[in-house]
Amino acid sequence: MLGDRRNTTEWFRSVYEHVTLPAIYTFVFIIGLGANVWGLKSLLQKWKSLGHINVFLLNLGIANFLFLPTLPFLTAYYFMGNKWIFGDAFCKITRFCFNLNLYGSIGFLTCISVYRYLAIVHAVKAKGRITVRNSVAISVVVWLLVSAQSLPDMLFPKNSPNRTEKCHHTTSNEYVENYLKYSVGWTLTGFVMPLLIFLGCYGHVTLVLCHKNTINKVVKQRSLKLMFILILLFSVCYIPYHIFKNLSLYSRAFFFKHGKYPTWDKGVFTAHQISRGLVCLNSVLNPLVYLHVMDIPAQLQQLLQRFRQTFTRLFVSEYGSVPVAQTVSTAIS
């Protein structure tokens, strides 16, 4: 029975890690890089008109750019059958950049949630307190906290004694018990606490938006759309990853101590592998936040409308009617 489990697990690991995960990383690298470049360019163009929230949006973009350049190396690692050829130091740097991206994104999304909460619920009181200086100071504190939480991860070995070419995203089995304790504390401070702040802020914002008729309808719609984007990010990228990462670590520690896996290990292992792919999508979904704040959807609609007009002028319409350009020239002559 154990042999069947191991065969199934190894088959899934082989297919997922060597085919699916590199494909996800390639997709995230291409789409995420394009979306973030476009988003940050638009952010800088509208810097003055966005208010103090632009500081958090800029830092959110920086968090994405810390991770995206490492994806080609991780793609090569998994594509080559979990063989890391770039050195142990760069392995730890790569994993460190992933953690900075993950927990930096969570931190700045939380800051944006608090900002929107203050702007809607406590607009009068917060007007003089939300300044660029305060936003920069808060951003520095977020980076310091995220770095302090992530640095201990670099102290754990990322390879196995008998497989020095490995680059584990957690650590080897010999240190998994200590890593589990660290990971639980990291999850509580780096994820659970921000999640509770996010839920508290948007729970209150939702009540205010539903019961106050004085708030502009456009503001309501934009706030609810932003809340939906953030819920999507937490639900798809962050919550599954943290749950199944810690359960998988517990299962590995249980096996190392008792010589067997828990009965639920197979399902947790599969879910954890899938969540590792989903958590990387945050670099693709994060741009939706600052694109939404900058009202890029309206710009996209205008761009598409211009494209349709250009398309109509350049090509013959259906049923062989005369092109618009020809009609105009005939009318002029």
Task: Describe the 3D structure.
The protein has helices at residues 2-45, 53-67, 71-79, 88-121, 123-126, 132-150, 176-211, 217-258, 265-280, 282-293, 296-314, 324-332. The chain has 333 residues and is an all-alpha fold. It has a single domain, classed as Rhopdopsin 7-helix transmembrane proteins (Up-down Bundle), CATH 1.20.1070.10. Helix 1 runs parallel beside helix 10 (282-293). The radius of gyration is 24 Å and the shape is globular. The termini are far apart.
Summarize the entry for a quick read:
The chain is built from 12 helices and no strands.
Task: Give the SSE layout.
Layout: H1 2-45, H2 53-67, H3 71-79, H4 88-121, H5 123-126, H6 132-150, H7 176-211, H8 217-258, H9 265-280, H10 282-293, H11 296-314, H12 324-332
Helix pairs in contact: 1-2, 1-3, 1-9, 1-10, 2-4, 2-6, 2-10, 4-6, 4-7, 4-8, 7-8, 8-9, 8-10
Beta-strand content estimate: under 5%
Could you spell the SSE succession in H and E letters?
HHHHHHHHHHHH
Amino-to-carboxy terminus distance: 86 Å
Instruction: Count the domains.
Output: 1
Rg calculated over all Cα atoms: 24 Å
Fold-level CATH name = Rhopdopsin 7-helix transmembrane proteins
Name the average pLDDT: 82
How many extended strands?
0
CATH-level-4 superfamily name:
Rhodopsin 7-helix transmembrane proteins
Q: Count every helix, treating DSSP H or I runs of 4 or more residues as helices.
A: 12
pLDDT < 50 stretches: 1-5, 316-333
By CATH reckoning, the class would read: Mainly Alpha
